[in-house]
Amino acid sequence: MKHLILFMLAVMAVSCDGQKNSPIPHELEQDPLNPIDTVCKACKDSTFAAGEADLRYVVFDKNGPMNIPVVTSVRNKITFYYYLKSNIANYGNSVMAYIGRGDSTLFCYRQGEYNTDSRLPIMSASKPVTAAVIMTLVEAGKLALDDKVSKYIPSFNNEKKEITIRQLLAHTSGLVYESRFDSRSDLTLQQNIDSIALRTQLQFVPGKGALYGSVSYGVASRIAEIVEKKSWATIFQERIGSKCGMEDVIYSPDHPANPATGYGIMCSMNEYLRFLTMIYNKGTYNGVRVLSVASVETMEADNSNRVDPTYGLGLWRSEFQNNTAKEVAVLSARGVHAWINREKNYFGLLFTQAGFDTTIQPNLAFRKLVRENL
């Protein structure tokens, strides 16, 4: 009896009201205009009455004898909750977390100064969004991943002429990882990319090495502008934003004519959850086919020609089995961290602004904790 009382008290700590920023077992928010919308309603300032009836509902199987605890799911919530709570300093005292499977919320958590609708810079979490846009153009037959950049951009007809679009997105192009042209508001994306082509040096022979960076994503985006004859902002909205509930998402609000497509997105946690849900669903969101299954599988595959199999297209690959990644992830300089576990069929998102150095280890440890408990 003593152990059961302690267990119930722990559940009460987890299930307290939202004003204490606790995780709350809750179904997805139901939007009448978008009935399977993926948002984290429980992370908002909703409340939960921890009365006796509610506590029994959480702790016990409502359809079975009242003396049989539903141990696994509740224990997971407690485990995840106390991990984040004990590591909150690493997150600058502000973090949100979400774990989902199918159309169900398995766990959510919020503590700190922002909520799921706060619009924040996500840095390199922008990369898979940009890669997804490029994959829609591949599907449309407007370009191919193994096309050479020089086919579309004349300024690359130099020592960079052999670089392919696949190499751009898989970090094996040999281009510099950043440049002084990236965030200039007095340049267009075209001027930025031409400057990179003519004024930077290759770091290695294309396809023979790997260097993580964002410049190559700008080059890929410029190719999209050329084949579509539209601005990147328009292309993104037409192909991803309008289909994934991301209509308000923008790249680089301080220099929109020269968008940093490798790191420039400003968005909310809920907006990014919608994109993540699309990738998790192998290309569909709210019943709409955004990407083909083959395109998502390509993004999750080794595109480095075994130079560095941790790189897909916009995604990091891990937990390998016969070169198949059981988990793919998104990392960012602000600490935003998303992942999809294909083996156990769930996805997760940690949303913070605390920075890479202080969050990378707790983020990875939380991923491992979830993987071991689900």
Automatic annotation (TrEMBL):
Q: What class of enzyme is it?
A: hydrolase
Which range is the signal sequence, renumbered to this chain?
A: none
**Beta-lactamase-related domain sequence ranges:** 110-354
- Metal-binding found in the keyword field: no
Q: Which Pfam families match?
A: Beta-lactamase
What keywords are annotated for this sequence in UniProt? Carboxypeptidase, Hydrolase, Protease
InterPro entries the UniProt entry points to:
Beta-lactam-related, Beta-lactam/transpept-like, Diverse_Enzym_Activities
Annotated GO MF terms: serine-type D-Ala-D-Ala carboxypeptidase activity
Q: What is its EC number?
A: 3.4.16.4
Q: What is this protein called?
A: D-alanyl-D-alanine carboxypeptidase
**What species is this protein from?**
Dyadobacter linearis
According to the entry, what is the taxonomic lineage of the organism? Bacteria, Pseudomonadati, Bacteroidota, Cytophagia, Cytophagales
Gene coding for it = yfeW_1
